[in-house]
Each structure stands twice: as structure tokens, then as C-alpha cells.
Specification:
Helix content of chain A: over 70%
Distance between the termini of chain B: 45 Å
Largest sheet of chain B: none
Number of helices of chain A: 5
Oligomer: heterodimer
Number of domains of chain B: 2
Order of helices and strands of chain B: HHHHHHHHHHH
Structural class of chain B: mainly alpha
């Protein structure tokens, strides 16, 4: 299959997936549990992205207090909880990561 | 007054999306470089960023093209990797249902992980307003522009170069998501949904093509529904 054909069909598939419920929700009757479930979508999806990123940097599970990403992630969770501020959370998490990597001698490796 | 609201919404979207770009731009650069090393032409590499416009799917597709995988398999993989966007679509649908078809098409095209995360947080915190979709547009266009530009730079400057996997800037993405999720955890059901989704995501991390992520999200959502349905 030609690369352009793959891209155009792939793009249409992606677009259709993104449009799916935005288009359909007006036109079909969805059950009540479905509507109630929607509020859990952001916390569930984003948590399922966050946790593996913290525990498995470089794609291997590293559940240990020597895991800089995990420690820095905990700092970020604390800062996010106390301040509710996105920029502060990012800065605190990055600062924690750099400091912890320096302390562990991981930096630049 | 109306114009002012729209402008304000648009620019808040731009502003709130901006920090995430720190984490997105390195991936755009990397994608540009990777696509070239998989023998895509510069034009095809750039076109993929605007036609498919989905980071993970593009990475996988470019690599599979490079290894000569059959087109049908690549399309199936792209579809599966992007299935989580159906969840995003369902999640924003109630907030954009008052809009015309043109807006719905445009916002659907811009519905990436990063734009979704920022936009749904804004809807949930500030409530619905008739002009709220301008925020969505601001956030979505900001990410779109950064993705196109970083792909282009990656194609022309990073050809053959490698970005180390543990480059610390990639850590910005989970940090941003933490900043959006943690304040949104307001009740037992939400906390349970997040914890279970995170845990399943961790266990199913090695499932191919982000199916683990999809599974984790669905189990998390069901957990939230079950806990919410139980009398306290």
C-alpha cells in the first residue's frame, strides 16, 4: 500500500474516532450509566498515563525509592494537591527530578 | 462584549496549553528525525503530522512503514492506538453539543491527548458557557502549531540525530497531567477511578499498541461508576 494511501486512511480513521461521540451523542439515546461514566474519563485516562511514566521510566518497571521519576512524581503530586497550580507543579517536579538525579549520580546517563 | 469573551477564552486556552509544549516539542523533533530515518520523504513526514496528527500513532506508523509492514496492519495499529480518543470524544461531547457542524469537525480534528487534558479540566472547573469552545480552539491550535513546527524542525535539523530516551523534558507530560488530575480528585469515586486506572495501567503497561491504557481507563471508569452507585 502506498504511504500516502496509508496516511490518508489512517488520518480519516483517527478523525472518525475523535468525531465519534461528538457527532453521535446528539443523535442516539445513550444510557444513563454512560453519561455518568463520562466524568471519570479524564481522571482514569490521565492516571493510566501518569503511573506507568513514573514507575517505568525507559519502559522497564523500576519500583524503588531509587527511581528519580517516582520520587519527583510524588513531589509533583504533593505540590499539585496543595497549590492546584499547573506551572508550579511542572517546575517543582522538574526541579525535584534534576536534584534527585544529581544526588543519585544519574544525571546525564 | 461577546467578542471580548471569545478572545479571552481563546487566549486562556493558548496560555494553559503553553507549558505542555515543553514536553511535546521534543517528541515533534524526534518524530521528524525518526520519519526521515524510516525513509519517508520530508513531505510525507510533514504530511503525517497534519493528516494523522497523533503522536504515538505517528511514531508507530513511521516505524512500521520503515520495516515494510503491510498497509492493513499499519492501519489497524493506528486505529487501535487512537481508540482512546473515542473516550475523549464522549467526554467533551456534552460540552460542544450546542455547536454547529463546522465547529464540531474542527474541534474533533484538534482533539489530542494534550488539548483534551487542558480543555476538559477547564470545562469541569469553570462550567459551560456559550463561548467556552474558543478555549478548546486556543488550546488545540497551540498544540497543532507546535506539533507542525517541531516536526518540520526535526526533519531538517535533527536528521540522523538521536534524542536520548531519558531526556528530562519528556517528564513534563506526566507532570502536566498530574497537575490537572490531582485537583480534580474531589470524591471517593473519582479517587478510586484514578487509583484503579493507574494500577491497571501499570500492570498492563507492556500490552501492545496502548491497549493497556485503554483497558486501564475502562476499568477505572467502571470502578468510579460502581463506587458512586453504592450508598455511602
Amino acid at each position: 500500500m502506498n504511504i500516502w494511501v496509508i496516511m490518508i486512511i489512517g488520518g480519516l480513521l483517527t478523525f472518525a474516532t475523535r468525531l465519534s461521540f461528538i457527532f453521535l451523542l446528539d443523535r442516539i439515546n445513550v444510557p444513563d450509566w454512560f453519561r455518568r461514566g463520562l466524568r471519570f474519563v479524564p481522571v482514569a485516562v490521565l492516571s493510566a498515563i501518569i503511573l506507568p511514566e513514573l514507575t517505568s521510566p525507559n519502559n522497564t518497571l523500576f519500583l524503588s525509592w531509587r527511581n528519580p521519576q517516582l520520587l519527583a512524581g510524588m513531589v509533583a503530586i504533593l505540590v499539585a494537591w496543595r497549590t492546584k497550580n499547573v506551572l508550579l507543579t511542572i517546575l517543582a517536579g522538574m526541579a525535584a527530578l534534576v536534584v534527585i538525579q544529581l544526588l543519585f549520580g544519574h544525571f546525564g546517563v | 462584549m461577546i467578542m471580548k469573551n471569545r478572545k479571552q477564552e481563546f487566549w486562556s486556552g493558548v496560555r494553559d496549553e503553553a507549558p505542555i509544549l515543553l514536553g511535546v516539542v521534543p517528541f515533534g523533533l524526534l518524530f521528524g528525525a525518526l520519519a526521515i530515518s524510516a525513509h519517508l520523504s520530508s513531505l510525507a513526514a510533514q504530511a503525517m503530522s497534519s493528516i494523522i496528527f497523533a503522536g504515538s500513532a505517528q511514531f508507530i506508523a513511521a516505524q512500521l512503514v520503515g520495516t515494510g509492514t503491510s498497509g492493513l496492519v499499519i492501519l489497524l495499529v493506528v486505529f487501535v492506538v487512537n481508540l482512546r480518543h473515542a473516550l475523549y470524544s464522549a467526554s467533551v461531547a456534552p460540552h460542544v453539543r450546542h455547536l454547529g457542524t463546522g465547529w464540531k469537525l474542527l474541534l474533533s480534528y484538534l482533539l489530542t491527548d494534550e488539548a483534551y487534558a487542558v480543555t476538559i479540566t477547564h470545562y469541569n472547573r469553570e462550567g459551560d458557557l456559550p463561548d467556552r469552545h474558543w478555549y478548546f480552539l486556543g488550546a488545540g491550535l497551540t498544540l497543532w502549531s507546535a506539533w507542525q513546527a517541531s516536526t518540520a524542525v526535526g526533519i531538517f535539523i535533527f536528521i540522523g540525530a538521536q534524542i536520548p530516551a531519558n531526556w528530562p523534558l519528556s517528564f513534563v507530560l506526566p507532570l502536566t497531567f498530574i497537575a490537572l488530575v490531582v485537583p480534580a480528585l474531589k470524591d471517593r469515586a473519582g479517587v478510586a477511578a484514578a487509583l484503579v486506572a493507574g494500577l491497571v495501567g501499570l500492570l498492563a503497561f507492556n500490552f501492545p499498541y496502548k491497549t493497556g491504557l485503554l483497558l486501564a481507563a475502562l476499568i477505572g471508569i467502571i470502578t468510579g461508576l460502581v463506587i458512586e452507585g453504592r450508598p455511602k
